[in-house]
Amino acid sequence: MKPDRTKVTAGEAGSGQSRLAQNSDRNFHSRLGKWGNPRHWFRITGLPGWKRAQLGMPAFGQAHCAKTRRETTPGVTAPKTNADRRLSVVWRELRAHVPFTSLGTLSGVFLLVVLIWTQASRSLSTTLFWTMHPLHVLLSALVTTAMFRRHRGRGLWATLAIGYFGSVGIATLSDCLLPFAGEWLLALPHRGLHLGFIEKWWLVNPLAGVGIFIGFVWPHTKFPHAGHVFVSTWASLFHIAMALGPVVSLADGALIAMFLFLAVWLPCCTSDIVFPLLFTPKTSDRGSDSASTSPSQL
Fold first, then answer.
1. Residue 264, Cβ neighbours under 10 Å: how many?
2. Rounded to two decimals, what is the model's pTM?
3. Which of 273, 233, 279 is nearest to 256 (CA)?
4. Domain boundaries, the chain
Protein backbone atom coordinates (compact mmCIF):
# COMPACT_ATOMS: atom_id res chain seq x y z
CA MET A 1 0.00 0.00 0.00
CA LYS A 2 1.47 3.34 -1.01
CA PRO A 3 1.74 6.08 1.67
CA ASP A 4 -0.66 8.98 1.45
CA ARG A 5 1.31 12.06 0.30
CA THR A 6 -1.63 14.44 0.59
CA LYS A 7 -1.31 14.85 4.37
CA VAL A 8 1.40 17.22 5.53
CA THR A 9 2.26 17.60 9.18
CA ALA A 10 2.59 21.00 10.86
CA GLY A 11 6.37 20.48 11.32
CA GLU A 12 6.90 19.73 7.67
CA ALA A 13 4.82 22.74 6.71
CA GLY A 14 6.86 25.00 8.99
CA SER A 15 10.18 23.70 7.68
CA GLY A 16 8.97 24.14 4.12
CA GLN A 17 7.99 27.74 4.80
CA SER A 18 11.37 28.48 6.42
CA ARG A 19 13.22 26.99 3.41
CA LEU A 20 11.06 29.07 1.10
CA ALA A 21 11.87 32.23 3.09
CA GLN A 22 15.60 31.44 3.03
CA ASN A 23 15.53 30.92 -0.73
CA SER A 24 13.61 34.18 -1.16
CA ASP A 25 16.14 36.06 0.98
CA ARG A 26 19.03 34.50 -0.90
CA ASN A 27 17.56 35.52 -4.25
CA PHE A 28 16.88 39.04 -2.99
CA HIS A 29 20.45 39.41 -1.70
CA SER A 30 21.91 38.10 -4.95
CA ARG A 31 19.96 40.71 -6.90
CA LEU A 32 21.46 43.44 -4.68
CA GLY A 33 24.98 42.41 -5.59
CA LYS A 34 27.74 43.42 -3.22
CA TRP A 35 25.38 45.74 -1.32
CA GLY A 36 23.39 42.70 -0.28
CA ASN A 37 26.48 40.90 0.99
CA PRO A 38 26.86 41.29 4.77
CA ARG A 39 30.62 40.77 4.45
CA HIS A 40 30.79 43.89 2.28
CA TRP A 41 29.00 45.92 4.96
CA PHE A 42 31.38 44.56 7.57
CA ARG A 43 34.36 45.63 5.46
CA ILE A 44 33.13 49.19 4.93
CA THR A 45 31.80 49.78 8.47
CA GLY A 46 33.85 47.48 10.70
CA LEU A 47 30.69 46.78 12.74
CA PRO A 48 29.59 43.24 13.67
CA GLY A 49 26.20 41.96 12.59
CA TRP A 50 24.44 42.52 15.91
CA LYS A 51 25.50 46.18 15.92
CA ARG A 52 24.43 46.75 12.32
CA ALA A 53 21.08 45.18 13.14
CA GLN A 54 20.62 47.66 16.01
CA LEU A 55 21.47 50.56 13.69
CA GLY A 56 19.09 49.36 10.97
CA MET A 57 21.89 48.37 8.58
CA PRO A 58 21.97 45.09 6.60
CA ALA A 59 22.92 42.20 8.84
CA PHE A 60 20.49 39.44 7.69
CA GLY A 61 21.19 37.35 10.80
CA GLN A 62 23.70 35.11 9.05
CA ALA A 63 26.24 33.13 11.01
CA HIS A 64 29.22 35.35 10.23
CA CYS A 65 27.23 38.50 11.14
CA ALA A 66 25.51 37.50 14.39
CA LYS A 67 26.88 34.69 16.52
CA THR A 68 23.71 34.01 18.50
CA ARG A 69 20.06 34.94 18.43
CA ARG A 70 20.51 36.66 21.83
CA GLU A 71 22.96 39.19 20.40
CA THR A 72 20.54 40.23 17.64
CA THR A 73 17.65 40.77 20.03
CA PRO A 74 16.87 44.49 20.41
CA GLY A 75 17.83 45.87 23.81
CA VAL A 76 20.49 43.22 24.49
CA THR A 77 23.95 44.71 24.99
CA ALA A 78 27.05 43.37 23.33
CA PRO A 79 29.44 41.13 25.26
CA LYS A 80 32.23 42.96 27.09
CA THR A 81 35.52 43.35 25.27
CA ASN A 82 38.93 43.30 26.94
CA ALA A 83 39.00 47.12 26.82
CA ASP A 84 35.63 47.28 28.61
CA ARG A 85 36.85 44.90 31.30
CA ARG A 86 40.05 46.90 31.69
CA LEU A 87 38.09 50.14 32.17
CA SER A 88 35.83 48.40 34.67
CA VAL A 89 38.82 47.27 36.72
CA VAL A 90 40.41 50.75 36.55
CA TRP A 91 37.18 52.38 37.73
CA ARG A 92 36.80 49.89 40.59
CA GLU A 93 40.40 50.48 41.68
CA LEU A 94 39.91 54.27 41.61
CA ARG A 95 36.80 54.03 43.76
CA ALA A 96 38.56 51.72 46.23
CA HIS A 97 41.39 54.22 46.74
CA VAL A 98 39.34 57.43 46.90
CA PRO A 99 39.32 57.58 50.76
CA PHE A 100 43.12 57.50 50.93
CA THR A 101 43.49 60.21 48.30
CA SER A 102 40.96 62.45 50.04
CA LEU A 103 42.63 62.06 53.42
CA GLY A 104 46.05 62.73 51.90
CA THR A 105 44.84 65.95 50.32
CA LEU A 106 43.29 67.13 53.58
CA SER A 107 46.51 66.39 55.45
CA GLY A 108 48.44 68.45 52.88
CA VAL A 109 46.10 71.41 53.29
CA PHE A 110 46.48 71.17 57.06
CA LEU A 111 50.29 71.12 56.86
CA LEU A 112 50.22 74.04 54.44
CA VAL A 113 48.28 76.10 56.96
CA VAL A 114 50.74 75.10 59.71
CA LEU A 115 53.75 76.05 57.57
CA ILE A 116 52.27 79.43 56.71
CA TRP A 117 51.15 80.09 60.30
CA THR A 118 54.51 79.20 61.87
CA GLN A 119 56.56 80.72 59.02
CA ALA A 120 58.75 77.63 58.75
CA SER A 121 62.22 78.13 57.28
CA ARG A 122 63.20 77.06 53.77
CA SER A 123 65.91 74.78 55.15
CA LEU A 124 63.29 72.76 57.03
CA SER A 125 61.16 72.45 53.89
CA THR A 126 64.24 71.39 51.89
CA THR A 127 65.11 68.66 54.37
CA LEU A 128 61.54 67.38 54.48
CA PHE A 129 61.26 67.37 50.68
CA TRP A 130 64.42 65.27 50.24
CA THR A 131 63.02 62.88 52.83
CA MET A 132 59.52 62.53 51.40
CA HIS A 133 60.37 62.42 47.70
CA PRO A 134 62.65 59.33 47.87
CA LEU A 135 60.14 57.63 50.16
CA HIS A 136 57.42 58.47 47.64
CA VAL A 137 59.45 56.80 44.87
CA LEU A 138 59.86 53.69 47.03
CA LEU A 139 56.13 53.34 47.75
CA SER A 140 55.17 54.21 44.17
CA ALA A 141 57.47 51.52 42.78
CA LEU A 142 56.03 49.00 45.25
CA VAL A 143 52.39 49.73 44.39
CA THR A 144 52.93 50.03 40.61
CA THR A 145 54.77 46.72 40.46
CA ALA A 146 52.24 45.02 42.75
CA MET A 147 49.31 46.23 40.64
CA PHE A 148 51.00 44.96 37.48
CA ARG A 149 51.66 41.57 39.09
CA ARG A 150 48.16 41.25 40.59
CA HIS A 151 46.56 41.66 37.18
CA ARG A 152 48.60 38.90 35.53
CA GLY A 153 51.53 40.97 34.37
CA ARG A 154 54.41 38.75 33.30
CA GLY A 155 58.07 39.11 32.41
CA LEU A 156 61.04 40.29 34.44
CA TRP A 157 62.09 43.10 32.10
CA ALA A 158 58.51 44.31 31.67
CA THR A 159 58.09 44.37 35.46
CA LEU A 160 61.31 46.34 35.90
CA ALA A 161 60.43 48.86 33.20
CA ILE A 162 56.87 49.45 34.39
CA GLY A 163 57.94 49.61 38.04
CA TYR A 164 60.71 52.13 37.32
CA PHE A 165 59.02 54.46 34.85
CA GLY A 166 55.70 54.23 36.70
CA SER A 167 57.38 55.32 39.94
CA VAL A 168 60.33 57.59 39.11
CA GLY A 169 58.64 59.17 36.10
CA ILE A 170 55.27 59.86 37.66
CA ALA A 171 56.72 60.71 41.09
CA THR A 172 58.87 63.34 39.36
CA LEU A 173 55.74 64.70 37.70
CA SER A 174 53.83 64.74 41.00
CA ASP A 175 56.56 66.02 43.36
CA CYS A 176 58.62 68.24 41.06
CA LEU A 177 57.08 69.26 37.74
CA LEU A 178 53.52 70.07 38.78
CA PRO A 179 54.56 71.93 41.96
CA PHE A 180 57.10 73.91 39.92
CA ALA A 181 54.35 74.80 37.45
CA GLY A 182 52.30 76.13 40.36
CA GLU A 183 55.31 78.07 41.68
CA TRP A 184 55.89 79.60 38.26
CA LEU A 185 52.25 80.56 37.72
CA LEU A 186 52.07 82.12 41.20
CA ALA A 187 55.46 83.84 40.68
CA LEU A 188 56.76 82.64 44.04
CA PRO A 189 60.05 84.33 44.97
CA HIS A 190 62.21 81.20 45.46
CA ARG A 191 60.79 78.98 42.77
CA GLY A 192 63.04 76.26 41.39
CA LEU A 193 62.90 72.84 39.74
CA HIS A 194 64.39 69.91 41.66
CA LEU A 195 64.67 66.54 39.90
CA GLY A 196 65.35 63.85 42.45
CA PHE A 197 66.50 61.09 40.09
CA ILE A 198 69.26 63.47 38.85
CA GLU A 199 70.18 65.59 41.87
CA LYS A 200 70.18 62.64 44.28
CA TRP A 201 70.43 59.73 41.85
CA TRP A 202 72.36 57.67 44.41
CA LEU A 203 69.30 57.71 46.71
CA VAL A 204 66.22 57.85 44.49
CA ASN A 205 67.10 55.18 41.91
CA PRO A 206 68.15 52.45 44.39
CA LEU A 207 64.98 53.02 46.40
CA ALA A 208 62.97 52.53 43.21
CA GLY A 209 64.70 49.17 42.78
CA VAL A 210 63.87 48.18 46.35
CA GLY A 211 60.20 49.06 45.79
CA ILE A 212 60.08 47.02 42.59
CA PHE A 213 61.53 43.99 44.42
CA ILE A 214 59.02 44.25 47.29
CA GLY A 215 56.08 44.66 44.91
CA PHE A 216 57.27 41.67 42.90
CA VAL A 217 57.41 39.28 45.86
CA TRP A 218 54.54 40.85 47.87
CA PRO A 219 51.87 42.06 45.40
CA HIS A 220 49.50 43.93 47.73
CA THR A 221 48.27 47.42 46.92
CA LYS A 222 45.73 49.02 49.21
CA PHE A 223 47.72 49.81 52.35
CA PRO A 224 50.90 50.88 50.48
CA HIS A 225 48.77 53.13 48.28
CA ALA A 226 47.45 54.89 51.37
CA GLY A 227 50.99 55.65 52.50
CA HIS A 228 51.95 56.57 48.95
CA VAL A 229 49.22 59.22 48.78
CA PHE A 230 50.19 60.82 52.09
CA VAL A 231 53.90 60.88 51.26
CA SER A 232 53.23 62.26 47.77
CA THR A 233 51.09 65.03 49.25
CA TRP A 234 53.78 66.05 51.69
CA ALA A 235 56.57 65.88 49.07
CA SER A 236 54.62 68.15 46.71
CA LEU A 237 53.80 70.48 49.59
CA PHE A 238 57.43 70.85 50.74
CA HIS A 239 58.59 71.50 47.16
CA ILE A 240 56.19 74.44 47.02
CA ALA A 241 57.12 75.48 50.57
CA MET A 242 60.76 75.87 49.48
CA ALA A 243 59.62 78.57 47.05
CA LEU A 244 57.41 80.52 49.47
CA GLY A 245 58.27 84.04 50.57
CA PRO A 246 57.82 85.56 54.02
CA VAL A 247 54.21 86.57 53.28
CA VAL A 248 51.56 84.36 51.62
CA SER A 249 48.16 85.79 50.76
CA LEU A 250 44.90 83.93 51.23
CA ALA A 251 44.40 83.71 47.45
CA ASP A 252 47.88 82.21 47.00
CA GLY A 253 47.12 79.68 49.74
CA ALA A 254 43.91 78.62 47.99
CA LEU A 255 45.69 78.24 44.64
CA ILE A 256 48.50 76.26 46.26
CA ALA A 257 45.89 73.91 47.77
CA MET A 258 44.38 73.43 44.30
CA PHE A 259 47.77 72.63 42.76
CA LEU A 260 48.46 70.29 45.66
CA PHE A 261 45.26 68.38 44.99
CA LEU A 262 46.04 68.05 41.27
CA ALA A 263 49.63 67.00 41.98
CA VAL A 264 48.40 64.16 44.21
CA TRP A 265 45.18 62.90 42.65
CA LEU A 266 46.14 62.59 38.98
CA PRO A 267 49.73 61.29 39.14
CA CYS A 268 49.28 58.98 42.14
CA CYS A 269 46.24 57.19 40.81
CA THR A 270 47.78 57.12 37.32
CA SER A 271 50.98 55.58 38.67
CA ASP A 272 49.38 53.03 40.99
CA ILE A 273 46.34 52.03 38.97
CA VAL A 274 46.03 53.16 35.36
CA PHE A 275 49.68 52.90 34.22
CA PRO A 276 50.33 49.24 35.21
CA LEU A 277 46.90 48.07 33.97
CA LEU A 278 47.62 49.47 30.50
CA PHE A 279 50.33 46.85 30.05
CA THR A 280 48.64 43.81 31.57
CA PRO A 281 47.24 40.99 29.40
CA LYS A 282 43.52 40.21 29.24
CA THR A 283 41.92 41.77 32.29
CA SER A 284 39.21 39.97 34.24
CA ASP A 285 36.51 42.13 35.80
CA ARG A 286 35.74 39.62 38.51
CA GLY A 287 35.71 40.96 42.02
CA SER A 288 38.50 38.62 43.09
CA ASP A 289 40.96 40.42 40.85
CA SER A 290 40.34 43.81 42.34
CA ALA A 291 42.41 45.30 45.10
CA SER A 292 39.27 45.94 47.07
CA THR A 293 38.09 42.35 47.40
CA SER A 294 39.20 41.29 50.83
CA PRO A 295 40.72 42.80 53.97
CA SER A 296 43.33 40.04 53.87
CA GLN A 297 44.93 41.84 50.92
CA LEU A 298 45.93 44.82 53.10
1. 29
2. 0.64
3. 233
4. 10-72, 82-293
